[in-house]
């Protein structure tokens, strides 16, 4: 093996994209070995999701495309920006329906919270708590559905499978809720941070279910 071939072999070994030079178990996520590179990809994904979800009703399609983009990246598969937009276009028809339903539910819950805070409703504190809990549950359901969406199966099985996803991994659903709440908090603190929040939420959907197979 000459020096050029050796350098190429070392690069493939380091990235996890090729044969290893030493006998060892291959990396679980070969594309995510560089923390800084992964962070940059998460921010890029968050930006793509933000742009793709600007109309609000297009957010589910943008989330589904972003999750698939990051999943390809951490697996060291080809993952270009054009692949994100290709997935976004495929997810858009059914995703708009999901987005409309989610928007209506979110608006109703938000109005309940606002009314509860005015003190005009009896039991306003309880209604406010229920409203916030409903928003969190809706966010978890949206993340679960977006993570399950594929171009081959579409949105209907993804939405129908939400209860099974939550029941199959309750702790994972809690992690989803934490990711959703953190996204909301950082966005409330500074609006541009929604880019990082959405990117981290997409990464959570990729990473959290996979933790079960490590045991």
Describe this structure in words.
The chain has helices spanning 3-15, 35-52, 59-74, 81-118, 124-148, 155-160, 162-168, 170-189, 194-210. The two termini are 38 Å apart. By secondary structure, it is an all-alpha fold. Helices cover 74% and strands 0% of the residues. Helix 4 runs antiparallel to helix 5 (124-148). It has one domain. InterPro entries: DUF624. It comes from Microbacterium jejuense. The chain crosses the membrane at residues 42-70, 91-111, 123-149, 161-182, 188-210. Residues 1-26 are annotated as: Disordered. Keywords: Membrane, Transmembrane, Transmembrane helix.
Cα-atom Rg, whole angstroms?
20 Å
Please estimate the helix content: over 70%
Oligomer: single chain
**What kind of sheet is the major sheet?**
none
> How far is the first residue's CA from the last residue's CA?
38 Å
Number of DSSP helices?
9
What is the overall shape? elongated
Tally of distinct domains: 1
**Structure class:** mainly alpha
The number of strands is 0
List the secondary-structure elements in sequence, H or E: HHHHHHHHH
Poorly predicted runs are: none
Beta-strand percentage range: under 5%
Mean pLDDT: 86
Biased composition (Basic and acidic residues): 1-13
Region (Disordered): 1-26
Protein name: DUF624 domain-containing protein
Keywords: Membrane, Transmembrane, Transmembrane helix
Briefly say what this structure is.
The chain crosses the membrane at residues 42-70, 91-111, 123-149, 161-182, 188-210. The protein is mainly α and 215 residues long.
